[in-house]
Amino acid sequence: MRTSQAAAFLHCAYALGPDATAKADILWRLTKNLRAGLGLARHRPDKVYKLRTTFGPLWLRDNFGDITNLPGLLDRGVYRWKGLSGPGIIVDAGANIGLAARWFAHFNPDRPIVCCEPIAENTVILRRNCPRALVIEAAMGDARGTVELLTDPDNVIASSIPTAWGSAARTFPMRTLDDCAEEFGWSDVALLKMDAEGMEPAILRGGEGLLVRTARVVAETHGETGHAEVLSILNRAGFRILDESYARTTGMVFAER
Questions:
Q1: Domain range for residue 5?
Q2: Last residue in a domain, options 76, 103, 133
Q3: Mean pLDDT for back-to-back runs of 10 residues, the chain (257 residues)
Q4: Which of 114, 116, 91 lies closest to 173, judged by CA?
């Protein structure tokens, strides 16, 4: 294990474990992919386990992907915004199993949260990790209908762009933020978070009406073209870019009105 990775795992376990036993359990789970790579363990994707954390109980699957998000989302807090000011809901487009939603719910206990996630296998866990969220089981895009996305063997991620893992095409229902806003009566949005494996520009194009009533946007972008398009759409919509970065294949954008 690289020194930097070991340090990140230790910090995560120490920060998120409410007691010594929980810290040890978190650290053990964080090392699972390393142990599996060395032939000392194997993943059991159908198995769900619970971690006790300072954010409360979290449920994850014993696969390659779920645990990898724990340090970034809940320890380092890559989405930065905690308690939000002003009116409005939180919309998480590309919610996966709800770890980011749990972060936002923890710091905004009275604010409604909407989670948009196309993979049914993820929404089962998402509903356990963020039980007060409204879950919309669909991909968000720029039109209502269906979309074909690439999924990994464990059905953890649905991507609109080529992937580094063995993938298979799968068709999902697709909706727009604007049609969801009309159906569910959304007014103001305090924060729109996006991490949708390349769908970010399409999500923004399908939410032009809602963007007018959105105070903040944080997006993980995928691909240089997609990153540039997200910046362009947000600028045209009147947002101020607070911070943006891009390296290799992914980027981050923070913007507000």
A1: 1-76
A2: 76
A3: 85 98 98 94 96 98 95 97 96 98 97 97 97 97 95 83 79 97 97 96 98 98 96 98 96 97
A4: 116
